[in-house]
Design a protein that fits this description.
Residues 524-658 form the GGDEF domain. It holds the Pfam family GGDEF. It comes from Micromonospora purpureochromogenes. This protein has 729 residues and is α+β, with helices and mostly antiparallel strands. Among the domains are: 41-232, Beta-Lactamase (2-Layer Sandwich); 352-436 and 446-487, GAF domain (Beta-Lactamase); 496-655, Reverse transcriptase/Diguanylate cyclase domain (Alpha-Beta Plaits), CATH 3.30.70.270. The protein contains 16 helices and 23 strands. It has helices spanning 3-68, 73-85, 154-164, 187-197, 239-261, 267-280, 295-337, 341-356, 397-405, 464-495, 505-522, 536-543, 545-562, 586-601, 631-647, 686-699, and strands at residues 91-96, 101-104, 114-115, 128-136, 142-151, 167-173, 176-183, 205-207, 212-217, 227-232, 358-366, 371-378, 391-393, 409-412, 427-433, 449-456, 526-533, 568-573, 576-582, 605-608, 611-613, 617-624, 653-655. It has a six-stranded antiparallel sheet with strand order 13-12-11-16-15-14, with helices on both faces. The protein has a five-stranded mixed sheet with strand order 2-1-5-4-3. The protein has a five-stranded antiparallel sheet with strand order 7-6-10-9-8, with helices on both faces. A hairpin with a 2-residue loop joins strand 20 and strand 21 (611-613). Helix 12 crosses helix 13 (545-562). The chain starts with a helix and ends in a 30-residue tail after the last helix.
Length: 729
């Protein structure tokens, strides 16, 4: 063989070898990458399904708990109706200890329902997903169960598919993988997907002949639904034929060019082939020396530029991935460890800024007046006119339009074109978020908030990838808002009486301890009124328990209307109530008792258009520290005074006697120097009372009797305080 032949053969070997290796490498790599990415997508989809079903089960469990807290059947039915109307559950079922249904909301799906625990209740398709809680009386005796359910229908499966981004199929059961209850699969691939699903179990992923990847999910504890997830492969169709054609084309071109390049030294080619092999093994630091300015030299220079750009791109992708993982980890920890909405929103905003490279941003929530109010912001200094707070009415400007339509917006405008009341910027992107379950397919409800970012680094506009990233963070913000609201509502329900709206006995004990500690620390008085509706049993026996409930509710409303904002009213149980009057002495408490008695006695309570009931109230008064030294003792003293008021003929009040070691002197605090118009004595330090005495004498008003204290208008505050119940008096 001649030298040219040997050089040609060498050239063909050098050129076609890497081409063939590259084709095989590309083919196998694309297939492996396709399977890896599809498996990852199915894994993320499975996690999303478990999270969604678990969140739904927790919501149903909370709804069932809310119904089970009601001790009265009528109240329980009302609570069940309210739970369904608010969308917390699709149906509520109450059963007794024998399993007999005692109440079911209208339109409830047929039983049995699939329990969230994962145990199958019956063979056949899953009609509803439910969570059950035990129903017990105040003594702890089991009365039955309360079940809250969500209907499992095609819309439910469609929502799971939309949340996960994959096709979802609900099977009749784990033992019947070929029977489908609901599915989002097309008819063309459904049979192939079901056939593939019947051959796998656990977390394994299989592939259908047409290139779809399939995974079975559940049933399992926390995810009781038997599901099949599938995604289409991303490998282009006909890839092997394209690779073979590319190799053949390269071979033909190499043969045609080999005879012209046979005289060229093989050293640059050997170097280039070695560098290509290193890159194929993952070494992106490989470089080829440029020894000439001909085609070989230009090829070497292009190869060096390609590897540098590829290395930079891979490094940027790795850094971006690590940064995003870090932000998502911080966000997940924050969502799991706190109910502080402001902190959660700040973490979400900071993560969104870091993930998109924006210079500024804000999170706005919708208030009851229909105005979007900025909850947290970053980088808006100098962007708002006159440093005004961020408040945007729904439907106004870019942010208001996003909240009204529920559609995200992105774009660019000049600073002079920025809508009034919104930050000045060149580029922007705004994404709405709604509470879970807040938007229906038939009509979109206004968003509960908007996440807006401004001026991306580099001056380029925000793209679709940024929009997808912000949708993720907006989803986290929506879940955070809903979780905080549910937490606050659960706290409120656990501390209030459902019939009267007053605080319950549990919160009475906590408030009494707190107010006694406050009064002791600042040397103040605390008065306790124990109230009992007179002859309430006669009302129930004569007019029925429904009328009795109306009387108690109206009685509570009148009590709230006669006390101050700082005072606290409680329902202790039955027709017994308690009122705490901070910084009030016995005289002030007696005045309040007289007003409460008159408010109840003077106006009959209208039950319906034919029945009006006149009731009276007996009141016992005790004062800390005059009558007792601890919260429980002063409450017992008020009860004893209440019994005395009952024994004295009812419709009145009695003040318990002073204890022998009572300390009545208070520490000096600022107080008003002028008595109120009603000339009632006011409790306070001696210096203040002396000042009032001087003002009374100057005004010609007689001084109060010796030993009578007068209530002060100011007051100390200690620790967190619950929401006030009244409008004051």
């Amino acid at each position: 063989m001649t030298l040219r032949g040997r050089l040609t053969a060498a050239f063909l070997a050098v050129v076609l070898g890497p081409v063939l290796l590259g084709a095989v490498f590309v083919g196998t790599t694309l297939a492996a990458v396709d399977r890896s990415r599809s498996t990852e997508r199915l894994g993320l989809a499975a996690s999303t399904v478990r999270t969604s079903v678990d969140a739904l089960c927790q919501q149903l469990r909370a709804a069932a708990d809310a119904v089970a807290l009601r001790t009265d059947p009528a109240a329980r039915a009302g609570a069940a109706t309210q739970v369904v109307s608010r969308g917390l559950a699709g149906a509520v079922l109450v059963t007794d200890v024998a399993g007999t249904t005692t109440y079911a909301t209208p339109g409830a799906p047929p039983t049995p329902w699939q329990d969230c625990s994962g145990d199958r209740t019956a063979a056949g398709p899953v009609r509803a997903l439910s969570a059950r809680v035990d129903l017990r009386d105040p003594a702890g005796l089991a009365l039955g169960t309360v079940a809250a359910a969500q209907v499992v229908d095609p819309a439910f499966v469609a929502r799971l598919a939309a949340a996960t981004g994959v096709a979802v199929t609900l099977l009749d059961g784990p033992a019947a993988p070929d029977r489908v209850t609901h599915t989002t699969e097309s008819n063309r691939v459904r049979e192939a997907v079901l056939a593939a699903a019947s051959t796998v179990d656990g977390d394994r992923v299989t592939e259908t002949p047409d290139g779809r990847y399939v995974r079975r999910l559940g049933p399992s504890p926390g995810q009781p639904l038997p599901l099949v997830l599938s995604v289409p492969g991303e490998q282009p169709a006909g890839l092997p034929a394209v690779l073979v054609g590319a190799v053949l084309l390269a071979a033909v071109l190499a043969v045609l060019a080999a005879w012209r390049l046979a005289r060229v030294t093989t050293r640059p080619l050997v170097e280039l082939a070695g560098a290509v092999d290193r890159v194929a093994r993952g070494d992106l630091t490989a470089r080829v020396p440029v020894r000439s300015r001909d085609e070989i030299g230009r090829l070497a220079g292009a190869f060096n530029r390609m590897t540098r750009e590829t290395a930079s791109y891979v490094a940027a992708l790795t850094s971006s991935r690590d940064q995003l993982r870090g932000h998502l980890a911080v966000l997940g920890d924050t969502l799991a460890s706190t109910h502080d909405l402001q902190r959660i929103l700040r973490v979400i905003l900071h993560s969104a800024l870091a993930a998109t490279g924006a210079r500024a941003g804000a999170v706005l929530l919708l208030d009851p007046d229909g105005v979007l109010v900025g909850q947290c912001a970053e980088g808006l200094d100098g962007r708002m006119p006159d440093a005004e707070p961020l408040r945007v009415p729904v439907g106004t400007g870019v942010i208001g339009a996003v909240a009204a339509t529920g559609e995200p917006q992105r774009g660019r405008f000049e600073p002079a074109e920025a809508p009034a009341g919104e930050p000045c910027c060149e580029t922007y992107v705004a994404v709405p978020f709604t509470a879970p379950g807040g938007a229906e397919s038939a009509g979109r409800e206004p968003a509960v908030g908007v996440l807006a970012l401004y001026d991306r680094l580099g001056g380029v506009e925000f793209d679709d990838d940024d929009l997808a990233t912000l949708r993720t963070f907006a989803g986290h913000a929506a879940v955070a808002v809903e979780n905080v609201r549910v937490h606050e509502e659960a706290q409120r329900l656990s501390l209030t009486d459902p019939l009267t709206g007053l605080w319950n006995y549990r919160y009475l004990r906590e408030s009494l301890r707190r107010e006694v500690e406050r009064a002791s620390r600042f040397g103040r008085m605390l008065s306790i009124l124990a109230l009992d509706v007179d002859r309430f049993k006669r009302v129930n026996d004569t007019y029925g328990h429904t009328a009795g409930d109306v009387v108690l509710a109206e009685f509570a409303r009148r009590v709230r209307g006669e006390i101050r904002e700082v005072d606290l009213a409680f329902r202790q149980g039955g027709e017994e109530f308690v009122v705490l009057l901070p910084e009030t002495d016995a005289r002030g408490a007696a005045i309040v008792a007289e007003r409460l008695g008159a408010a109840v006695r003077d106006t009959p309570i209208v039950v319906d258009e034919h029945v009006a009931i006149t009731v009276t109230v007996s009141i016992g008064i005790a004062v800390f520290p005059d009558h007792a030294g601890t919260g429980q003792q002063v409450l017992d003293a008020a009860d004893e005074a209440l019994y005395a008021a009952k024994a004295a003929g009812r419709d009145g009040y009695r003040v318990t006697g002073l204890r022998p070691d009572a300390v009545t002197e208070e520490i000096p605090v600022p107080a008003g120097s002028v008595s109120p118009d009603d000339e009632l004595p006011r409790a306070g330090p001696a210096a203040t009372r002396a000042a009032e005495g001087s003002s009374r004498q100057a005004a010609g008003v007689p001084a109060p009797a010796p030993g009578v204290t007068q209530p002060v208008t100011g007051g100390a505050s200690s620790g967190p305080h619950p929401p006030r119940q009244s409008r004051g008096r």
